[in-house]
Amino acid sequence: MNDPTHLETLADEILLTIRRRPGRAQSVSALSRRFKVSAQDIADALGIITAWGYRLKTTRQEATFLEAPDLLTSTEIGYKLKTKTIGQTIHAYHSVKSTNDIAAQLAASGAPEGTIVTAEIQTKGRGRLSRSWHSPPHAGIYVSIILRPTFPAERAPGMSIMTALALADTIESYCPDRTGIKWPNDILISGRKVAGILTELTAEGRRIEYVIIGVGINVNHRADDFPLELRSIATSVRRVTRHKQSRVELLKQFLVRLEKEYTRYQKRGLSTSRTRMRWYSSLIGNRVKLAHGRKIIDGVALDIGADGSLILETQQGTISVSSGEVTVVKT
Ligand code: BTN
Fold it and tell me: Which atom of ligand 1 lies closest to the CA of 135?
C-alpha cells in the first residue's frame, strides 16, 4: 500500500482494534487477515501509530497497545466520550491565537451546537476584562465550546455560572474540599486560581445566535511554567495533587459535566443549583470590593441568589449584583 492516506486510515482502524485490549499482544497475521492487507502494511501502519505518540510494543509477529499520548487530538478527546452534543464535533489545533476566535468564526459559518475547539498552544489567549490568558504548550487545557441556546439573551450571564459549576465539580474530583468559585466564574484551589471562563455572546436583540464558552484550565503547569507575577496567585491541578494528570481525561470529564449542567440550565435555570453555588462560593462572609463599570461597591458578601447574582450588604442596604469584578478585602 503506497497511498499515505489509505495507510493513515488503516492506522486509525488498527488503533481502534488494538486499544480495546490494552496490554494484550495481538498477532500481526490476524490483523492482516482482518484488514485484508499485507503484514508489511500492518507494520507500516503500526509505525504511523507510534509516530502519533501512542506507546506500543511491537515485534514482527505481535503488537501490544500500551498507552495513549496525553494530547488534545480529536481522536483522543472523542474516544468513548459520553456526551450527546458537546464535543461531538471537535476541531483540535496545535497552535492558534485564541480558540475563542476560531470558535466564533466556525459558529458564524454555521458550526453545530456542541462543537468544540481545542489547542495545545495559544499565542494570544484572551482572559476577561481584556487580560491575556497565559497558555504554555501541552500544560493546560484551552477549549472553546459553541452553544446555541433558544432562551433569550438576558439569560446568557447564567451560562458562565453553570460552566463554573461544571468546572468546579470536575476540579473538586481531583482536589476534594479545596475547590472554590470566586464569583462569578474563577475556579480556585485553596484560594489560588486554577481555571477561568470567558463567555462571549452574539445576539440579535433578544435572540441568541451563539455563545462561545472559552475555558482555560491549568492542569500540568509546574511553578516555573507561570510567569513570576502569577506564581503566587495561580496554581495547577498538578501542583496541588503532586501528580501529572491526564488532560484528555480531565477535559472529557468536564465536557460530560457541562452537558448535564447545560441541560439543567435550559430547563430550570440556576434555581436547583443554589446549594452548590453557595457551597463553592469563596466569597460568602468576606468583605469585598466590587468593580462594576466605573463604580466600586464596598460590602460584605452575604449570599448567592437563586439567579446566580451576588448578594451584598452595603452601607446603603442589601443589594444584588449580576456582574462585576470582585476583590476580597483582607481584614
Ligand atoms: C479569565 O479568567 O479571565 C478567563 C480566561 C479564559 C481563557 C480561555 S483559554 C480558551 C479560550 N480562548 C481564549 O482566548 N480564552 C479562553
Answer: 9
Ligand 1 site, CB within 6 A: 98-100, 122, 125-128, 131, 133, 142-144, 186, 196-198, 214-216
- Could you tell me the residue ranges of all domains in the chain? 4-67, 74-279, 283-328
> How far apart (Å, rounded) are the C-alpha atoms in residues 56 and 64?
5
- CA–centroid distance, 52 to ligand 1, in Å, is 28
Q: Which residues are registered as beta bridge partners of 288?
A: 299, 328
Between strands 192-204 and 207-218, the pairing is antiparallel
Fold of 4-67: Arc Repressor Mutant, subunit A (1.10.10)
**Residue of 200, 215, 233, 258 to test ligand 1 pocket, by largest number of atoms within 8 Å of CB:** 215
Residue 219 CA to ligand 1 center (angstroms) comes to 14
Question: Could you read off the pLDDT tens digit of each residue along the chain, which spans 331 residues?
Answer: 667 779 999 999 999 999 999 999 999 999 999 999 999 999 999 999 999 999 999 999 999 999 999 999 999 999 999 999 999 999 999 999 999 999 999 999 999 999 999 999 999 999 998 899 999 999 999 999 999 999 999 999 999 999 999 999 999 999 998 999 999 999 999 999 999 999 999 999 999 999 999 999 999 999 999 999 999 999 999 999 999 999 999 999 999 999 999 999 999 999 999 999 999 999 999 999 999 888 999 999 999 999 999 999 999 999 999 889 999 998 7
Q: Which architecture, in CATH terms, is 74-279?
A: 2-Layer Sandwich (3.30)
d(CA 29, CA 62): 8
CA of 125 to the centre of ligand 1 (A): 6
CB 147 within 8 A of CB 210: yes
Q: The CATH number of 283-328 is which of 3.40.50.2300, 3.40.50.10810, 2.30.30.100, 1.10.565.10? A: 2.30.30.100
pTM of the model: 0.94
Q: Quote the CA–CA distance of 252 and 299 in Å, as a whole number.
A: 38
